Amino acid sequence: MASNSFGTLLTVTTFGESHGPAIGCVVDGCPPGLELAPEEFRHDLERRATGRSRHTSQRREADEIEILSGVYQGRTTGTPIALLIRNTDARSKDYGNIAEQFRPGHADYSYWQKYGHRDPRGGGRSSARETTMRVAAGVIAKKWLAQRFGVVVRGYVSQIGTIVPAGFDLDAVETNPFFWPHAAQLDELERYMDALRKSGDSVGARVEVIADGVPPGWGEPIYGKLDGELAAALMSINAVKGVEIGDGFASVASKGTEHRDELLPDGFASNHAGGILGGISTGQRLRCSAAFKPTSSLRLPGRSLDIHGNEIEVVTTGRHDPCVGIRAAPICEAMVALVLMDQALRHRAQCGDVGEVTPRVPAQAGQGDV
Amino acid sequence: MASNSFGTLLTVTTFGESHGPAIGCVVDGCPPGLELAPEEFRHDLERRATGRSRHTSQRREADEIEILSGVYQGRTTGTPIALLIRNTDARSKDYGNIAEQFRPGHADYSYWQKYGHRDPRGGGRSSARETTMRVAAGVIAKKWLAQRFGVVVRGYVSQIGTIVPAGFDLDAVETNPFFWPHAAQLDELERYMDALRKSGDSVGARVEVIADGVPPGWGEPIYGKLDGELAAALMSINAVKGVEIGDGFASVASKGTEHRDELLPDGFASNHAGGILGGISTGQRLRCSAAFKPTSSLRLPGRSLDIHGNEIEVVTTGRHDPCVGIRAAPICEAMVALVLMDQALRHRAQCGDVGEVTPRVPAQAGQGDV
Amino acid sequence: MASNSFGTLLTVTTFGESHGPAIGCVVDGCPPGLELAPEEFRHDLERRATGRSRHTSQRREADEIEILSGVYQGRTTGTPIALLIRNTDARSKDYGNIAEQFRPGHADYSYWQKYGHRDPRGGGRSSARETTMRVAAGVIAKKWLAQRFGVVVRGYVSQIGTIVPAGFDLDAVETNPFFWPHAAQLDELERYMDALRKSGDSVGARVEVIADGVPPGWGEPIYGKLDGELAAALMSINAVKGVEIGDGFASVASKGTEHRDELLPDGFASNHAGGILGGISTGQRLRCSAAFKPTSSLRLPGRSLDIHGNEIEVVTTGRHDPCVGIRAAPICEAMVALVLMDQALRHRAQCGDVGEVTPRVPAQAGQGDV
Amino acid sequence: MASNSFGTLLTVTTFGESHGPAIGCVVDGCPPGLELAPEEFRHDLERRATGRSRHTSQRREADEIEILSGVYQGRTTGTPIALLIRNTDARSKDYGNIAEQFRPGHADYSYWQKYGHRDPRGGGRSSARETTMRVAAGVIAKKWLAQRFGVVVRGYVSQIGTIVPAGFDLDAVETNPFFWPHAAQLDELERYMDALRKSGDSVGARVEVIADGVPPGWGEPIYGKLDGELAAALMSINAVKGVEIGDGFASVASKGTEHRDELLPDGFASNHAGGILGGISTGQRLRCSAAFKPTSSLRLPGRSLDIHGNEIEVVTTGRHDPCVGIRAAPICEAMVALVLMDQALRHRAQCGDVGEVTPRVPAQAGQGDV
């Protein structure tokens, strides 16, 4: 499959450059009959959008989705759903001087090595602008999963630079601009980000996604594993450098007696595995997370080369987030939802619909969620 | 694509259960003319095999590869290469009592939920036995990469339980049964593993893979990113719970000024990115790693249920590694090689062969390897 | 892969309904550096367009292509090329009365059975309007094939109803509205079509496509055969009911001594195979053809049912071609070009670029073209 | 997807050369729980096998299937089913002299052009020996389709050289070695074939496949059309030069009023479309056919070249069918069954299982079968 498509049965193909005429996507494989209106995309696009708070980029993107196909009389028809957003706020002047420069930490150099010819405006195809369409596609997946299976997918930020949550309350996440699960730390975060912006530097972030209500049996063995697909989905997001399922790297230092989640009559005793065993969902809460590197677009100068091999100094004057990972929460959420919907469709293709085959066992009253 | 196949242009399809008649794979897409003999698989299969030392499982697998197709007069023909290994050392009695049991931490429960009907002998399809064929396929990829591009892919263990290397010497890796890059710690590791085996418990491990000689330009943007494919490849290995590229999760707490790898006339100043920017190789050393959870097969009893919902106690009496991650080094190596070869083929499909387009820029004398 | 995408390395994904806001496509995998401008699509879209002569539908489609992505400074960048055409001439009233009707010979019934919910306006997704984007994508493929390999792909009509060409002159094809290769028959065709239109009935057509300059070695064995891909590509066009390669069904009654194309020092002695042996190109002229059924949209009443099972009489009052096959010549041409470009990319992925490996043998002075 | 795999959700990957150690296939995606035993393959392999009568090749293939994986306690587990047949009757001496020769009408020349290095023994990978595994995989598909949906797929020969059936009785097909649907012509066929063999020449054949019981709604729009997939499947069989759905090329000369199948309260009035409209099944009998060229392996000498460009004369002394198309009936049947099962799985992935959504309309008492 071509490089700009994602998914096996629910396929999302995105297109568009940061400062080109438009960005868009084609969502192919959505079942017919799902209600869908343009305004349903607004909420998640807002969540992802820059300009949400003073801690994210001050560029204002007016992301108005147009549904070009696949929806008739307000419901999906089963044919491909094309979504389009015109790029309206592209200030090309901000980026004009970098056409022949390799910004350190950006894809300029590797794209140029690969393609020779590239669109440098705003990062072109390698810009995080592309993730807008992932969020849009994710809206469809989240709605379908919720309606059909009661699955709820939620993303939040679990680390910004060196700060980690001192408490955990999912309800707090959507009440603050940091997608942070502990409201008592908001002042601390504000101060941290203010100092960071002042310094001209940036930090990374960790985003976690949990999905509740996933029935047991989703996922495929070997190369189509649910965790393998999640890893590919999350790692494909700009700036992600690591992915974990369940306990992730903490598993390395753990003991087998601690890590294996015992199964009791009222459900699993724990959830170190993150809801996946052998690549297939267990019916527990799904837990995964992604590491975002600090943005490389800084007003602090960095050394680099231009395409002729000359030494240059790069300073980014455009509008950029000091912590790109913060607004990645809805992006990660979307990718997880897209993977889950794809796996749900694959599951019913091979094993029949839920209710026909699964679940087969004792209810999981306690899910051993960590 | 079906769940048991991997890769776009170099496709590996594996089949077989732990205690079925045989395991095998079909490698489709290998260029013609590559010399290939059955004995070339032996070294890597030995490296992966159980029984290599007293610290890995004492089960002896006589993994003799048979080449069923795709090779004529000792060279590949371009048609699919089928590899077969007969299962000869399957002691089914070891596992007979678990047909109706869900071993904690294993895929028994999730497979049963998904398929209803499953092969429980030795874990069936979910057994790490399947990874033998990944290693076999990886031998082909490693050879082609080395001959065609001089790419060298090497895996080593960089954490066992709580122990991390106190030094780093790649040459040491293949001289000890732990794939450990620091010879001075071997006694410590021996003692650690002996104590672990005595306790009946297990620990996890971290495996790192580096690839040298990867030309700039490999990888695809968006969903076919080199790092995305690596994440999927590594996460699809049994027991893996996390994947990192370059600095991985350490990127979260780092600053942008530190993390962005500056480009100097004699090459990159550092390699926090792990040799990938925007999903495409930079020409630097490729660095990635995987977290392996501790094996769940323990002689220490664990609580669980059987398929009827009865409470049971599970004790594993079979032969199992106290640290499965150790012999995963060659598996990770194989998966990275398969991803790289696939991407190399994809690259030359779209952008022409190396030499035609790439590299375009100043040589990278110093690669900024960490 | 999802149903609305086509191709392995050059992937075309189309979207859009006949009377929705727009139709479009995403062409993924095109090599970088190809010059491409919106006006280059005009010629082939005109060739396909209705309204070209009084023998095709009188509906005027103003098909103005907008390039949304993948092109920078007039050249492709290697990233996905999205093409968009707004639907401007949709007279929904023409079709309003058929929302609950199954037009005989149309996809109304089968779509309704499959999806339940469908867009009936102008046939919705099943309208031949979709083929506009195939033609657009084909423009890219034809240009690349011509520039890179000197391959020229040409389609013409070789049967309209019961009339077959009495002579063969490729140069005549583009000089008449029937894509007919024998100018002396134009009067006869005019009279035939006039009588047909008067009668209210329709006829089928046969379209042939030839490709010159295809190097030997394109195509893959077994399921990726060049002829297999051509068959899929042509059969996927609306109204096609048959596909032939080379002599096609005439091969059944032929003798082996006649059919096998002998190879002489100056090339093949004949070309019954149509330039493909074992699924791989021979370097001869590629020959294939498609059978188009007569359009089912007629002003002569047809019996049918509505979705409630009531008997109805269907009369099509909209604007429709009495022979849809005529303007299918550019569509078939486009599909053949897309298949060839995809195979060219696949070939160089596995076997290296042309010049590196092929051709290996005596030049084919005479190609034995039939 | 790689070239030796077929299908989207039910994927068949074949491997093996005519005179290599073995041929085999991996069937991935079969639902769990289907009863399957090695002896179930015997009947169809016999039907396809050479040596069935004196009118097919006298080579005796002992095609004993071994199930290597995917089946436990006699039922499929949902994991990949690997099937293997050892090549036992390979008389390599028969073919030794052709290693450097291009047999006219064979894939020798095109394979050599593509790969440079090829296995010439018995045609290597391009031998029809490969189709054995298609038949084997088809056994699984036919059984699943029959059990799950009551679908019955049957192939027969509808033309041998210039002879066409003078009557049609499906029950006759399996009672004669020609898969001929009219018993009264058997003497004529025997004489025809005897004369043909005496002459040393060969003829082509037409094979038709019908499928009864296919529910409405199978197939996908645009590029995943049921007819498009059938065309690819049939054209991918060795020696096929044409494919028709329903009336096929006869549609060209037909009128729209005749061709469009009217829908009456008791079902369709006719079936010119072959049970497919807009790429999706209508619930009528599915009808398709394939044209097989005459075999090129003849004892009558043919002119050709060797790899050095020398003129040679090729005479085939091996054992070959004078009409390869005859025993292609089970191969075509298998391919149609594989396509249908794949589409059935795709259908239930997107639209839910049969019974949940379809059928929605008046029963089709009369199906208008031609």
Describe this structure in words.
4 copies of one chain form a homotetramer. Helices cover 23% and strands 20% of the residues of chain A. In chain A, a hairpin with a 2-residue loop joins β5 (71-72) and β6. Chain A has 370 residues and is of the alpha+beta class. Chains in contact: A-B, A-C, A-D, B-C, B-D, C-D. The interface between A and B is large, with 116 and 116 residues.
Quick structural gist:
With 370 residues, chain A is an alpha+beta fold. In chain A, 23% of the residues lie in helices and 20% in strands.
Jot down its keywords.
homotetramer, 370 residues, alpha+beta, Chorismate synthase, AroC fold, 5-stranded antiparallel beta sheet, 4-stranded antiparallel beta sheet, 7 helices, globular, Chorismate_synthase_CS (chains A, B, C, D), flavoprotein (chains A, B, C, D), Chorismate synthase (chains A, B, C, D), amino-acid biosynthesis (chains A, B, C, D)
